[in-house]
Specification:
Elements lengths: L1 H20 L3 H13 L3 E2 L3 E4 L4 E4 L2 E4 L5 H6 L9 E9 L2 E8 L5 E11 L2 E12 L2 E12 L17
Antiparallel strand pairs: 1-2, 2-3, 3-4, 5-6, 6-7, 7-8, 8-9
């Protein structure tokens, strides 16, 4: 699925660049300004969304998320929707297993194992199996998280349905 998404993203970026290159300069400028106002920025190698919180390029995706101390203290996990069940199991002092099972039209099962190397750094690996448009896809997941700064700047904390 990762290869499919990467290929689709690359094709979409190339098509968008081609269409924008064929626009009159004034129209292209208006389009770029409208996209920027929506938090979308396109350059030669990548697309950034949500005012830089998500960057997608040929090497993968980088997402920045603001997590408050209150969220950590409550043990909140990002909202996964009504059709999904998530569990987090501690399997060692610094090692956790996360399982997410979603039912419905685009059902999926994702399992990851996360290792906290320090209070400011973690790594994880896992796999996901998903039905998308009636077809089965499998993805390997590699992730790394690190503390960036105590000030989230313009990145807002996630919201949860029960808040």
């Amino acid at each position: 699925m990762e290869a499919m998404h990467s290929s689709q993203m690359q094709q979409a970026m190339e098509e968008m660049k081609r269409q924008m290159a064929n626009m009159p300069a004034e129209q292209r400028k208006m389009m770029e300004e409208a996209m920027a106002a929506s938090g979308i920025h396109v350059n030669e190698d990548s697309v950034s969304l949500a005012n830089g919180q998500v960057n997608i390029n040929k090497n993968g995706m980088l997402a920045k998320q603001c997590i408050t101390q209150e969220e950590i203290d409550r043990g909140e996990v990002a909202d996964v929707g009504d059709e999904c069940q998530s569990t987090l199991t501690q399997i060692a002092k610094n090692r956790f297993k996360s399982t997410q099972v979603c039912t419905g039209e685009n059902s999926s099962t994702t399992e990851t194992e996360i290792v906290f190397h320090s209070p400011t750094h973690y790594t994880g690996k896992g796999s996901s199996s998903q039905v998308f448009n009636g077809q089965q896809y499998s993805t390997n997941i590699t992730m790394e998280g690190k503390w960036i700064d105590s000030d989230c700047g313009d990145i807002l904390p996630a919201t949860y349905d029960d808040e």
